Amino acid sequence: MRKKCTFSPCCILRPLGEGSPQTPNHIWQLALRPLYSIRLNRHAQTLRSENSQPATEQKALSAKGFRFAIVASRWNDSIVSRLIDGAHDALKELSADENTFEIFRVPGSFEIPLCALKAAESGKFDAVICLGVIIRGETPHFDYIATETVRGIGEAALKTGVPLLFGVITADNIDQAIDRAGEKLSNKGFEAARAAVELVNLYRKAFTK
Ligand code: DLZ
What we know:
By secondary structure, this protein is an alpha/beta fold. Helix content is 52%, strand content 14%. The chain is built from 8 helices and 4 strands, in the order H-H-H-E-H-E-H-E-H-E-H-H. The protein has helices at residues 9-13, 24-49, 55-59, 77-93, 112-121, 141-160, 174-179, 188-207; strands at 68-73, 101-106, 127-135, 164-171. Strands 2-1-3-4 form a 4-stranded parallel beta sheet, sandwiched between helices. Helix 4 (77-93) links the parallel strand 1 and strand 2 (101-106). Helix 4 (77-93) crosses helix 8 and helix 5 packs parallel to helix 6. The longest helix has 26 residues, at 24-49. It is globular and about 70 Å long. The protein starts with 8 loop residues before the first helix and ends with a helix. The chain binds ligand DLZ. Ligand DLZ is lined by residues 73, 75-76, 107-111, 132-135, 137, 141, 145.
């Protein structure tokens, strides 16, 4: 028996392969496909230009009373240092006390997850901000390191229940990496630190008795 056509965007966007039933509905679908694609493109543009949070909520954030660990790699140190500065700026801007964050340096990004896990397990920190810069080279090294770094940080967060923030730049070249270590929200360290403050506030408010 032929499946009923539900005339939904999914149905319209599904490629009509060989043997697709060419019912009148499907002829309509083909005709309307460009219109749906324009609508979806517009929607995607709107999403890209939106900030992820309403500005008022961002203003209400405070880091006061929370403790943060920053785990940062030494590879590509000149760029990582900018990420650390960015994270520092964001925490200061959100009223974190100067002595409530500690910085731990590790050799490379591959070593970030274990150090972040230990920091999270110590119970001394409300969030752990992970910072590193991995730049693509001529060998598959980049992919191995990047994959393990992302996986390890994600796993450590789920294992400990402590928010671990991913402020690790993965870039094709140095220029791309420098672009992501700029000022304020163009700095992955700043962005990760803000996200840390947002999460600790959210979890305290939403999940403490
Ligand atoms: C070995 C290596 C390479 C090739 N590239 C980077 C990089 O771009 N960014 C980074 O943070 N670390 C790199 N490393 C070092 C590894 O992360 C790791 O420190 C070493 O393989 C030792 O375990």
